[in-house]
Write a structure and sequence with these properties.
homotetramer; mainly alpha; Fumarase C, Chain A, domain 2; Ribonucleotide Reductase Protein R1, domain 1; 3 domains; two-stranded antiparallel sheet; elongated; lyase (chains A, B, C, D)
C-alpha cells in the first residue's frame, strides 16, 4: 500500500482513527451486554458510551503508552481510562486482547469488502454498457495469439462481465467468511465472559458469532479471504492483458483513453502506451502474492501465536487498498476505452477469407468428404493464402476437388460473417439476464 | 503426485483410460444432441455409442498417432474412427478440441472433489467422535506456546471440526465453480454448433453450461478451485502442527499411533516420531504452492492460449491426489490418536495454580481494586511461582493486600477447574448441532 | 514431473535404482574410512564393495521390507545385509539415516545441475549462432507493445544470451550450494562417527563436507537451489513470451518450426500456433512455484523434522525434470526458429518514418529549440502520421517551424536506419567476448 | 513496509528526497560524459552540477507537474529546468526515462544491501559471541521434536552462524546481481547516446555497465535479488522458530529478554511470550512472498513494458525495509537471549539415560551382536524407561543378554556426556576459522 496506488475511502478503513473507534465500539457494546447480565453497572456502560463516544482518541498518547507497555490493547485501554475515568475499570472485563483485535480486523475486512463490492459493481456496469454498445462489433477471435474465427467485441466484454460477476459472488462469500465476531476470552472457553456478550456484540456490529474460537478467530477464514482477492486480481490481469494486446501497434483495435496533456514518453511523442493496464498487471501480481503468507498464517501454534499479526498488519491494508485501486482503475479504463471497429475489421480481413476455413471444412465433411480428406483439401488451399497472399474463396472455387463436393453458391455462403454472430443474442441473454 | 503419496481411487480419476472414456462420452453425448437437431443421422449417434461404448481405447495406438500429429484430440478422434468406422465422420462436428479437453478436465475435477468431500466426511466423523470422547478431558490452553488457561481436548477437536466443516463448504463451492461444460466451438460463438448441444452434454454429465466461454472455460474458475485446495491444505497443516506439538518429548499429551513392527529411527529405538503429521506439514506446503500457477493461468491471451495446459496436466493430478492422500492420512491419525489425559493434567499443574491468575485478576477488579493495581498484585505473586516454584494460592493467601480485597473462600473458589469448562456444552452445541 | 515433459537422462537421476546405488556408495565409502580408522575390519569394507558393487538391488524386496518397518533406510540396509552377509553389520556404523538421505539428495541435485548446465550450454550455443546470423537484421524495438525505435533481431538474441549466461552462473552457484556431504551422525555431533569419515566420503563423491549439520544438511541451501531454478524458469518465460509475441498473426516476425505432419488445430488448418513457447510459459509457472515450499522447508524444528522430505520427494524430480525439459525445448525452438526479416522491415515501416521521431526531437533541441518546443513540433507532425497515415518526413519538411530549425539534408539524415545499429558491434563484443 | 516494522536508515534509501537526488546525479554524471564527448558544452555540465547540487528538490512541485504530465521523469526534468535554467536543455540528451529509473533503482538496491550486510554482520557477531559463551553448554538435541542425543547450545548457535554466513555470501552475490547501470537510450541500442556515457556514469556510481539492456535493465537480476532476500528471511524464520520452541512452557531452555515495564498479556501477567520471534516468523512470510511477483516481473514484453514498475515501487521498499527490521530484531534477540543451562540439563535427564541408547546399540554391534538383535535388546529396555519411568542403565545392567555381550564398566562408559561433545571443537573450528 503506497499513496500512488491508494484511494482515500479504503485507506480510511485502515487508519489508526478507524481502528481505535472500532476497538471502542467493541468494548462499549460488550459493556452493554455485561451490564445487561448484571456483571457491571448499567451506569458504567452508559458512561463509557457517553464519554468514549464523544472523545477523539489521542493517537500520539496511545503510542506513548505502548512504547512503555509494548502492548497495543493495554495502551488503548489505559488511554480510554484517562477519558472515561473510574468507570473504565468495567471495560474489557473477562475479555482478552484478541477479542478486540480479531473482531476489529474482521470489521475492517467487511468494510473493505463492501468497498470492493461497490468497485466491482462500477466495473460491471461499465462492462455491461460497453458490451451492449459493441454487441455487434465484429472482431477476429484469436487463439494462441493467432487469428481463429470471428466473434464480436461485445462478446469479449460479456465474458469479462461474467468473470467479474463470478468475482463479485466470490467477494460476497469472502465477506461472509470473515464476518464473524469472537468475544470468548482467553483460549476461547468463555470462562470469564458469557457467550451472550459475544452474541450481542456480533449482532451490534453486523457479524455472526464465531462458533468456536481459540482466543483467536481461526485463520483459515482469512486465508480464504486473501486467496479470493488473489483470484479477483488474476481476473483483473486477464482483462488488462487483453487490452494491452489490443493496443499493440500492429493490432490497435482499442486504446486506453489518452488525456490531452498526457505525455507517453520523454523521447517518442507519438507513443500511446497502455500504461494503466500494464500497471494493473503489476498490481495483480502483488495482490496475488499476498495469498501465500495468508495461507501460511493458518497453522498457528496451539490456541494461538502472534505470527499472523505482522502479516496481517501488512496485507490487510496492502491487499484491499491495492485491489480497490486496481478495480477502480480498471473500471475507468473500460468506461473510457477507445474502440476502433474499422481496425477490427481490417485485421479480420488480413488473410483474405482464411478465417472461414473451419466452416468450409465442416461443409465438406457434411457433403460427404471424409474428415481426413476434407482437412487436406482445406489445408492445401489455405496454404496458398498464407504463403502467397491469395484469396481463399478464389482458390477454393478453382480447386476441382472442392468444386466436386461443394457447389459455388454453397461455398460462397460459408463466407458470411453473420453466421458467426447468430448466437450472440443467446450469449448475452445467458450472461446479462441472470444478473 | 508420486506413488508414495497417492491413493488408487484418485489416481484413477487422472488415468489415460478415464480421460479417453470421458472424451468419448462428451463426443457421444454431443452426437445425440446433433442427431436430435438433425445435423447428423440418429443411426450414426447410435453406432458411435454402441461401438465406442463397447471398445477399450488403445492408449499405445493413440500415443503413436499423437507422435505424428502432435495433437492429442485429433489422435483420439483418429483412433475412434478406427473403432467406429465411417460414422466417425459425424463425431466432433462443429466442435473444437477445447470443448472436449475443458469439459473433460472439469468432469475430472468434479469427480476429484467428490472424493475429497468423502475424505473430509471421514475426517469430520473422526474429529466428532474423538471430540465427544474428550469433551471433558481437561488440558492447558496455550498461547504463544506458553500456558494460558485451561480448556478441554474436546474443544481443540471441536475447533478442528468446525474448521474442516468450513473446508467442506469451501470444497462444495469449489466443486460448483468447476462444474461447467463448454461445447461452444472455436472462440466460443456457437457458430458451428447449436447451444442446445452444450445444454444436452452438460445435463448428461451433471454440469451446468458455461454462460460464455472463449473456446476455453475461463480459468478464474480453476484458480478459485486450486486456491481453495490450498486453504484446505493449510487447515491440514494447522491440525498436523498441533499434534506435532502435543507429541513433543516435553509435552507428550498425545501421540500418533505407533504400530508394533514400526521402527522410529535406525539409531534410537525409543523414539516415536510424529512422522505422519510432519509428512502432512510438507504435503500442505505442496498443495498450497499449486495455487500460484493456477492464478497465473487466468490471464490467457485473447480467446485462449495453451499455457495453462502444462500447468493443469501437472497440478490437476498433483493437487487432488496429494490432498486426497493428506486428508485420508489425517483422518487415520485422528482416528487412532493416542491421547494421554494424565499427562495433560500433569502439564497443566506444572506451575502450581498459575493458570488461575486471570481469574484472580478479574476477581480483584470486581472487588473494587483498580485494574492497574490488581495487575500488580497478581504479577508480584505470580513471579514467585515462576521464579521460585512457589504455590500460587499459598502466596496469594499470604499477601496482605490480596487478603484485604478478597476473602479466602472466594479466592479458593477461583482455583476451580470446572469454571473453565462450564461453556463447553455451549461450544459443542454451536459446533455440532448445526451440522 | 510427468512423462510428457520429461527426458530420460534427468529421470534416471531420480530413479530408485540410482538412489539405492548412491546410498550404497555412501555407505561403502564410509566403510572404507571406518576401516582406515580401524573401527571396522578392512576385509569387511572390501567385501561390502565387492558384493554390493556387483549386486543389483531388488527394489521390490526393499519396498516389501519398508512396508513392514516403515523406514526406507532400514529397509535398504536389511536388503543390503541379505546381499553382503555377516559383514553387513559393519555398514552404517555410527551413522544416521539422514547422513545417507541428505548426502544422496545432494548428489542427485549436483548431477541434475550438471544436466541443466549442459542444457544451458546448448541453449547458449543456439542463441549465439542465431544472434550472429541476425546481428544486422533490422527490426523494430517495442516498449509497452508499441513501436519504439529500431534495433536488430541479433540484439534481441544477444540479450537472451546474456540473460542465460547469468542463469548459467546462477546454476553454478546453486550447484555449489548443494554440493555438500554430511556424515555427522545423530544430531550432527560426530559423537558416533569420526569427522574424517565425512571428509573421505565427501571427497570420494566430489562434495565438500558440511561445516556444521544438525542431523540434516541445512535447508537454506536447498531453498537457494530451488529459488535459483525459479529464476531460470522466469528467464525461459521471458524468451518464450517474446517468441509468442513475434508469432502473433499481426506481427509474424518469427515462427516456431512447424513440422510437415503437424496439425495446428482440429478445426482451423491454416493455424500455426506457438504451442511450444506457450507450453514453456506454463512450465515456467510450475518451476517457479516450487521455490515457495522449498523456502518453507528451511524452518525445520530443532535439529530436524521430516516435513521437508515429502516436499523434496516431489520438487526434487519435478523442478529439475521440468526445467531440463524446458531448457531443451527452448534450445530446440531457438535452433529451428523461422525468422522473417522482410516482415520485420514491413512492420517497422508501418507508420512511415514515425520511428525516427526521437532523433528528430534530439536534432531540434541540439539546433537550439527548447525541449518543450521541440516536443510540440515533433508531436504535431507525428499525430498526422498516426491519425491520417501521412508520411513523417514529408510532413516535417512541410512544417515551416521545423524547416527554420533544421535544414532538409540534416532532417533526411535523421531517417537513416544505420544510425540505430552503429553500436551493435559494441553490444556484441560486450556480450560474447567475455564468455 | 509500515512504520511499526521500519528503521529510519533503510526508509531513507526509499525516500522521495533520496530518489530525486540519485536521479540528479545520474543526469549530471551523464552530462559530464556528454561534455567530455563534446555533445554538450562543458559549461552546461558544470552549471547543472552547481545549481542542481545546491538545490533542494521541491517534491510538492514535482508531484504537481506529474499530475499534469502523468510522467514522473518528465516532471522531475521540468522541475530541474526551473532550477538550472537554459542549460537544462542539455540534460537527458539521448537518454530515456528507464536509464534514470532503472539505474536509480539499482543504486537504491545496492545501498539497501549494504545496510542488510551490516545487519547481518551484527547478527553474526552476536551469534559468534553467544556460541562461544555456550560452546560447552550441554543440551538435548531433538529430531521430530523428540529427544535424540546430546549436543551443546553453542553448536546450535554455530549452525545459525554458518547459515547466516551463507546468507551473507548470498547477499553479496545479490548485490552484484543488481549493481549495474544502463544508459543505453530507447530500446538499448545507444543510437542516441554513446556507450562511454554509460561507462562513465556506472563508474561514478560504483556500478558496472549492463552489457546489453533493452531500454530496461533485465529483470532476471531483480528476481534473483528478491528471491535471495526470501531465502535470508527463511533462515530468520528457522532461528526464530528454534527460539519459540525453546521458550515453550514445557521446554523453557531460553527466553527472549523481557524488559521490566513490558506486559505480556492483558489478562495473564505471568506470561512471557516469545513475541519478537513470533513476529519474525510473520515478517519472514512477507519477505518470502515478494519473491513471487519479482519472478513474474521477468517476462516483460519485447524491449520492455511497465508492469514491473508498480511491483517494484512496493516490494523495493517492502522487502528491504522489512528484512532490515527483521535482521536487526533477530540480532537484538540473540544478543539479549536469556539462556537456562540448568533447564537444558533437566530436560536432557528427563528419561533417565535413554538418550544414550544409540551408543549402547553401537557398542552391542561392535561387541559382535547382529544389528537386528542389538536393536531388539536396546528396544526392550528402552521401552521400560519410556513406559514405566525406569532408569535405562539399571535396566540394561539387569538384562542378562546385554550383560553377556557388554561388561558393566564398558556399559557405564557409554553414559558419559563428554562423548557427545568431543568434536565440538572441530565443529567450531570449521565454522569460525574460515570466516
Amino acid at each position: 500500500m503506497i499513496p500512488r496506488y491508494s484511494r482515500p475511502e479504503m485507506v480510511d478503513v485502515w487508519s489508526q482513527e478507524t481502528k481505535f473507534r472500532i476497538w471502542f465500539e467493541i468494548e462499549a457494546h460488550a459493556c452493554d451486554a455485561l451490564a445487561e447480565l448484571g456483571v457491571i453497572p448499567k451506569s458504567a456502560a452508559e458512561a463509557i458510551w457517553a464519554k468514549g463516544g464523544a472523545a477523539t482518541f489521542d493517537i500520539e498518547r496511545i503510542d506513548e503508552i505502548e512504547r512503555e507497555t509494548k502492548h497495543d490493547v493495554i495502551a488503548f485501554l489505559t488511554h480510554l481510562a484517562e477519558i472515561v475515568g473510574p468507570d473504565a475499570r468495567f471495560v474489557h472485563q473477562g475479555m482478552t486482547s484478541s477479542d478486540v483485535l480479531d473482531t476489529c480486523f474482521n470489521v475492517q475486512l467487511v468494510r473493505a469488502t463492501d468497498i470492493l463490492l461497490a468497485d466491482t459493481d462500477r466495473l460491471l456496469a461499465a462492462l455491461k454498457t460497453r458490451a451492449f454498445e459493441h454487441k455487434d462489433t465484429i472482431t477476429i477471435g484469436r487463439s494462441h495469439g493467432i487469428h481463429a474465427e470471428p466473434t464480436t467485441f461485445g462478446v469479449k466484454l460479456a465474458l469479462a462481465y461474467a468473470e467479474f460477476e463470478r468475482c463479485r459472488q466470490r467477494l460476497v462469500a469472502a465477506r461472509e467468511e470473515v464476518a464473524t465476531c469472537a468475544i470468548s476470552g482467553a483460549v476461547g472457553t468463555f470462562a470469564n465472559i458469557d457467550p451472550s456478550v459475544e452474541e450481542h456484540v456480533a449482532k451490534a456490529l453486523g457479524l455472526k458469532p464465531e462458533p468456536v474460537s481459540t482466543q483467536v478467530i481461526p485463520r483459515d477464514r482469512h486465508a480464504m479471504f486473501f486467496a479470493t482477492l488473489g483470484v479477483v486480481a488474476s481476473s483483473i490481469e486477464r482483462l488488462a492483458t487483453e487490452i494491452r494486446h489490443l493496443q499493440r501497434t500492429e493490432v490497435l483495435e482499442a486504446e486506453e483513453y489518452f488525456s490531452p496533456g498526457q505525455k507517453g514518453s520523454s523521447a517518442m511523442p507519438h507513443k500511446r502506451n497502455p500504461v494503466l493496464t500494464e500497471n494493473l498487471t503489476g498490481l495483480a501480481r502483488m495482490v496475488r502474492s499476498y495469498a501465500m503468507p495468508a495461507m501460511e498464517n493458518v497453522a498457528l501454534w496451539h490456541e494461538r501465536d502472534i505470527s499472523h499479526s505482522s502479516v496481517e498488519r501488512m496485507i490487510g491494508p496492502d491487499a484491499t487498498v491495492t485491489l480497490d485501486f486496481a478495480l477502480a482503475r480498471l473500471a475507468g479504463v473500460v468506461e473510457k476505452l477507445v474502440v476502433y471497429p474499422e481496425r477490427m475489421m481490417a485485421n479480420l480481413e488480413r488473410f483474405k477469407g482464411l478465417v472461414h476455413s473451419q466452416r468450409v471444412l465442416l461443409a465438406l465433411t457434411q457433403a460427404g468428404v471424409s474428415r481426413e480428406d476434407a482437412y487436406k483439401l482445406v489445408q492445401r488451399n489455405a496454404m496458398k493464402v498464407w504463403e502467397e497472399g491469395a484469396d481463399f474463396m478464389t482458390e477454393l472455387l478453382a480447386d476441382a476437388d472442392v468444386a466436386l463436393a461443394l457447389p459455388e453458391a454453397e461455398l460462397r455462403e460459408k463466407f458470411d460473417l453473420g453466421y458467426h454472430t447468430k448466437h450472440v443474442d443467446t450469449i448475452f441473454r445467458r450472461v446479462f439476464d441472470a444478473c
